[in-house]
Amino acid sequence: MAPSGRSRFLMNENERHISVWSHFLRIVEQIVEPQKFTTWFKPVRPVSMVDSTLTVEVPSDFFREYLEATYLDVIKKTLKRVIGADARLVYLVRAVRSQQPIAVPEAAGNVPTNPEVSVNIQPSGNPNPFVYPGLRKIQINPKLNPVYCFTNFIVGECNKMGYTAGTAISSSPGRTSFNPLFIFGGPGLGKTHLAQAIGIAIREKFPELVVLYINGHEFKTQYVDAVNVRNKLTDFLGFYKKIDVLIVDDIQDLQGPGTQNAFFNIFNYLHQSGKQLIFTSDRAPVELQNFEDRLLSRFKWGLSVELLHPDYSTRLRMLQSLCRREGVSIGEDVLEYLASHIKTNFRELEGAFLSVMAYATAMHQENSVELAAKVTEKIVSNPVKEITISAVQSAVCEYFNISAEELVSKSRKRQIVQARQISMYLCRNLISNCSLSTIGAETGGKDHATVLHSCNMVSDLMATDRVFKKYVSELETRLLPSEA
């Protein structure tokens, strides 16, 4: 007997959460790497859906914590796309009895698990640089620069994930799923700043913890000195096993089997003891050369975060922050010029800012766009050509094979609407001193609210549609000059 209309309705309502979650997964699968999709999204099970609130079940609190910290933006925008603007997600943690046992990788070597027993300090007649005999909590200089705090850290799309993970770690060091935290990216993108900011925040909240920042080359030098001095290797290992939060900058410099073996044992001991480990590198773990596989696998245990090149708005906010920190007043037009022309990294941007200040002081000149241009020419080998609204619109029309008239028309054809929205988005993000009203006026007389809505639509689609993101990225590449 065929089900009645009401029973079909109830059946559809009962299965709605499954249908919505399946749609959600189909979109996310196009965005997230296959292995990470399988690891972090496949285990999630839809439970129910009431109105716009979807409830899902996750294996553990750590799983939920990682999922939100790593993919929150993707989750929010995809749910909004699937359910609507009022979409909400509620988590249920799976009961322990229904979970599979957690497999913990075995540590190689004889690494003790009891910190009180394993620290082997042998006092000698001469003081050494590693330990203070008789003290459980060693007193050391953490080597943290107070300037590199979270207050001075400018958050943007380029580093939001790293900032989120860093603040979570600073509130609960060693107890989150972000252990170790592996921060990687090109020079001048804020790796050292972020790593030290975490250390500073931890010291403020947990003054009893021992925090140490050190770079890979310095660690290697200490190890070599320790093995070349009789009876010092034990002190060297004992010192590092007393650290609660170990921050190693430029870990790619840990070359040599002896150094890596010592670091491997320190890593195992601290990790098993619930201590926090934070590393920075100029490349991803999979790209590190001449590293033992057992060490590389441990770098991947926690969370790997890439810091990207800052966008215009982030660069501008960084310059405004520098003005406040240095207590100087520089015209907004000068800051906007620098933000538009120095695109590589924060370090070069700060260098340009300080150079403008120095030139103005030395030459008794006012800070001006002309002075900023003179400084920029000495920093950027190929000065950036001005991008205009017309140039953006021409590039978009050529890319989508439509006419300029169609682009600025009132046509509601999907291809033309998307091309028009992308054009407005690129104008807003690539052209300095270009207001929403100006962009709208040059795009068929649209008002500023329409332009803002279009830019937000493009941002949302880039986060949930890989093909659409490819369109925008390829157009940006065409419009921006290649960097030498």
Structure in words:
It is a single chain. The protein is α/β, with parallel strands linked by helices and 484 residues long. Helix content is 52%, strand content 9%. It contains 21 helices and 8 strands. It has helices at 5-14, 16-29, 34-40, 61-82, 115-118, 160-171, 191-205, 216-227, 233-240, 257-272, 293-299, 312-326, 332-341, 346-362, 369-379, 389-400, 404-407, 414-430, 436-441, 448-464, 466-479, and strands spanning 45-50, 53-58, 88-93, 181-184, 211-215, 245-249, 276-281, 303-306. The strands form 2 sheets. A 5-stranded parallel beta sheet has the order 5-6-7-4-8, with helices on both faces. The chain has a 3-stranded mixed beta sheet with strand order 1-2-3. The protein is globular. The model is unreliable at 1-11 and 96-136 (pLDDT under 50).
Per-chain topology:
Blueprint: H1 5-14, H2 16-29, H3 34-40, E1 45-50, E2 53-58, H4 61-82, E3 88-93, H5 115-118, H6 160-171, E4 181-184, H7 191-205, E5 211-215, H8 216-227, H9 233-240, E6 245-249, H10 257-272, E7 276-281, H11 293-299, E8 303-306, H12 312-326, H13 332-341, H14 346-362, H15 369-379, H16 389-400, H17 404-407, H18 414-430, H19 436-441, H20 448-464, H21 466-479
Parallel strand pairs: 2-3, 4-7, 4-8, 5-6, 6-7
Antiparallel strand pairs: 1-2
Helix pairs in contact: 2-4, 4-20, 6-7, 8-9, 12-13, 12-14, 13-15, 14-15, 16-18, 18-20, 20-21
